[in-house]
Amino acid sequence: MSHVNNGGSSRGTTSRRQLLGFVAGAGTASLAGCINAFGGGGGGGADEIVLQMEGGTMLDALESEAFEPFEEEFGTTVNVALRSSQQSGYAQIKAGQAEVDMASVPPFTLYNGTMDEVWEPIDPSEIPNYESNVLDPLKNPIFDPGEQIHGVPHAYGTVGMAYNNEELDDPTSWSAMWDEAYAGHVAPEGFGFIRVFTTALEMGMDPNNIGAESSYEEAIEQIWQRVDEQQELVVTNWTSGDELGRLFTSTDAWVGEAWGNVIYGAVQDGNDHLSYVIPDEGAYGYTQNHALVQGIEDDRREACLEFINFLLRDEILQPVVEKLGLPPSTSVTSDTITGLYDYDPSGGEGLKFPDVEYINEHNDEWSQRWEEVRGN
């Protein structure tokens, strides 16, 4: 049975805790080297592995559908170290202050951790079900840089458009979020890079190469003018899944960006006035991934790879994603899966993944400008 620990993991030994104290303030690389030198490991199979993640539907789905059958087959317990946020969890791993073997990571954390050499490179041949089952558009995405892979996806999602079907008649374009008929009821996602990304799509630009047909300066100014126009219609710029759900279920929001699985869950709860669409211009796409922490012991690394490979089995992944409410990274399907709001019948070809390197290059600039626009 899996064990969830709100304060970290049950993995650590006295020697590891002492070691962390001895090298407090040392660099990450030095810390990793010390842990490898004193941590033992290798051979015999691991009794447990520790996965860092947040709680919620993902944890519920893995606990109910994957952890126990994996333990029964492989004899390895999956313990969970809960984090309060992606940022805090990653900071702990990067500083060598989290006794975990792998982490659940979205595109930005996968990219940043790869560049920071936090995630262990994986040879695809080590995960047979990756090579044979994972959809081709989800392999080696733009946010996993280099020739090697560092994250293995098990599900994908979109930032599409939610709408009140009692107020809007089947919109198909992002331009609905600029329609003055919905003034006071438009609900965009309130982060600068998302405002740029979606607005670029609505304007027919490539959000990963703004100004490709003119100049960056000219194109980004056009985007911010368009964002400013939209703000006159906005009820709230939401910044969390809970806030998103409240806005649309309360009918305060009629149209806006949304996470497909949140709106899907709201409809399953009886909010029949809600619908979701991936607009014709495309939508921001992301994957849910597992990444291995550099420097873990060999037996734990092997067990982590076994778990990832196990999770990609059709008979395991199908019930996991059905409970999660996001489509699988593989071709496994069912009536429930094809009915998920994020489901892409083209097998992932319709997703527009973020170029995290490009976004990181401009993010400070975009965040500052977004604050200015939002404050007007």
Structural commentary:
- With 376 residues, this protein is of the alpha/beta class.
- The chain is built from 14 helices and nine strands.
- Strands 1, 2, 3, 4, 5, 6, 7, 8 and 9 form a nine-stranded mixed sheet that branches.
- Strand 2, helix 3 and strand 3 (77-82) form a beta-alpha-beta unit.
- The longest helix is centred in the C-terminal third of the chain and has 20 residues, at 356-375.
- It starts with a strand and ends with a helix.
Structure described in brief:
The chain is α/β, with parallel strands linked by helices.
Average pLDDT metric:
89
Shape: globular
Please count the helical segments.
14
Fraction of residues in β-strands: 5-15%
**Biggest sheet record:** 9 strands, mixed
Query: What is the radius of gyration computed over CA atoms, rounded to a whole number of angstroms?
Result: 22 Å
Number of strand segments:
9
Helix-strand topology string: EHHEHEHEHHEHHHEHEEHHHEH
Uncertain segments are 12-44
Oligomer: single chain
Helix content: 40-55%
Q: Output the structural class.
A: alpha/beta
Roughly how many Å apart are the termini? 53 Å
List the main descriptive attributes of the protein structure presented here:
9 strands; alpha/beta; nine-stranded mixed β-sheet; 376 residues; 14 helices
Give a topology summary.
Elements: E1 3-5, H1 14-22, H2 28-38, E2 48-53, H3 57-74, E3 77-82, H4 86-94, E4 102-105, H5 107-115, H6 128-133, E5 152-164, H7 192-202, H8 216-231, H9 241-249, E6 255-259, H10 260-268, E7 274-277, E8 283-292, H11 298-311, H12 314-324, H13 335-338, E9 351-352, H14 356-375
Helix pairs in contact: 1-2, 3-12, 7-8, 7-14, 8-14
